[in-house]
Automatic annotation (TrEMBL):
Organism (species): Mucochytrium quahogii
Protein name in UniProt: Aminotransferase class V domain-containing protein
Ranges where the Aminotransferase class V domain occurs: 31-398
InterPro entries per UniProt: Aminotrans_V_dom, PyrdxlP-dep_Trfase, PyrdxlP-dep_Trfase_major, PyrdxlP-dep_Trfase_small
Keyword annotations from UniProtKB, A to Z: Pyridoxal phosphate
Length: 412
């Protein structure tokens, strides 16, 4: 099966003419056959809504959970379907709040986070615990960036965990693949390290992982794992899965609850997630269609290999051309690659969103430049997160490179 521009023409006709999508990581993209499947679901809903709700919805969502469980190597009963990764974070944060309220959590407990955690996930936990004083403490692991190796990242955790000896770490929130900057964490080794230091529970934000890298929940020693299906598994927005290892916690009367309370309260997390009020559930019913598309394209292994090789080639090309740094080594790159751009871009665009908007409006390219302030420096650094999906080809990155060169020339 041919990938690249031909794939874009054949399967992603929803893109506007001339558009070059190099930011798949933000919202994903669903191919034509999946969008058609979604439209058929919506039509069935419109034909007879009560019949759809009472006779089809629960079974359809359970089928989606079963399909995902095969991809991530776990049992279907350990998976529920939710909107997105942030919903999963809210489920876990509410569980911790209940633990504290019901006396299952000691005062001065530690929740371990890290410095490149996704803002929405961090804010979810902050909202629950910011007003509790020293009853709950958020401690942060400083992730080195650019990161040189998996061992360097693991050492950052080791150093922080040694500093926290004697303090009860009730939960660690870790990424499988961080968003900004994009880094593939050595997850299996990291979970083992956390357990060695007595961390009670581990929540993995795998928002970008499903469809980008292999996930084996029998090998990852975590208690909770969430990942979006609408990013790299080709589902429409929005659809994600939430995994909970302990079935009792998600059972009726358990401590896991969907953040939106509706008719299924206390019927177990899976049932609570099935119905959160009248809304569009069609994306959650498209998992099977998305996996069929993946199979049609040659399977996840082939797709992952193509995307990784393409984005790494593009990242190295940008780095060598501009004389700048890569954000991570190849074994910590999936289908997203972070590359430093010349600092003169910051002289032209004070805000990274202004640079992003300029590229979009002048060249019809969507990409993700961002600025950071590195430790020990007074001037910000400009980076770009490159995405690769099967509808991309190397010429897409060459066009973006030429656009950036024109912008840089104006600053010199």
């Amino acid at each position: 099966m041919d990938f690249g521009k031909q794939c874009r023409r054949n399967h992603f006709q929803s893109f506007e003419p001339g558009f070059i999508p190099l930011n798949h990581g933000s919202f994903g993209a669903a191919p034509k056959q999946v969008l058609e499947a979604r439209q058929a679901i919506l039509q069935n809903w419109q034909k007879q809504k009560d019949r759809f709700y009472f006779d089809k919805l629960d079974g359809g969502i359970d089928e989606s959970a079963a399909s995902i469980s095969k991809v991530v190597n776990c049992k279907p009963e350990n998976v529920c379907i939710v909107d997105n990764a942030t919903t999963g974070a809210a489920i876990v944060a509410e569980k911790l709040r209940l633990d504290l309220a019901q006396g299952r959590m000691k005062d001065r407990a530690v929740i371990l986070v890290h410095s490149v955690i996704y803002d929405a996930v961090l804010n979810t936990f902050k909202r629950f615990f910011d007003n509790l004083g020293d009853r709950v403490c958020l401690e942060t692991v400083d992730i080195p960036f650019p990161v040189k190796s998996q061992q360097e990242l693991l050492q950052a955790y080791e150093d922080k965990l040694k500093d926290l000896v004697g303090k009860p770490i009730v939960m660690a929130i870790v990424d499988h693949i961080s968003s900004i900057p994009s880094i593939v964490f050595p997850l299996e080794e990291l979970c083992k390290l956390l357990r060695t230091h007595g961390v009670e529970e581990i929540f993995v934000d795998g928002a970008h992982a499903l469809g980008m890298v292999p996930i084996d929940l029998q090998q990852i020693d975590c208690d909770y794992y969430v990942s979006n299906a609408h990013k790299w598994l080709f589902c429409p927005n929005s659809c994600a899965f939430f995994y909970f290892r302990d079935l009792e916690k998600g059972a009726p009367g358990g401590c896991l609850h969907h953040p939106i309370t509706s008719h299924n309260l206390n019927k177990g997390l899976k049932m609570e997630s099935h119905w959160v009020g009248t809304r569009d559930y069609s994306p959650m019913l498209c998992v099977g269609s998305a996996i069929n598309f993946v199979d049609k394209m040659g399977g996840l292994k082939k797709i992952m290999a193509y995307n990784h090789e393409l984005v790494w080639r593009a990242g190295v090309y940008f780095s060598k051309s501009f004389g700048t740094r890569l954000g991570a080594p190849e074994d910590m790159v999936g289908s997203l690659c972070t590359v430093e751009l010349p600092g003169s871009l910051i002289d032209l665009f004070e805000q990274d969103l202004d640079l992003r908007r300029h590229i979009r409006e002048t060249s019809n390219i969507e990409c993700f430049p961002f600025y950071t302030l590195e430790k020990g420096k007074t001037q910000k650094t400009c980076w770009i997160r490159l995405s690769s999906q099967i509808y991309n080809s190397f010429s897409d990155y060459e066009v973006l490179h030429a656009v950036l060169n024109k912008i840089i020339a104006k600053a010199t």
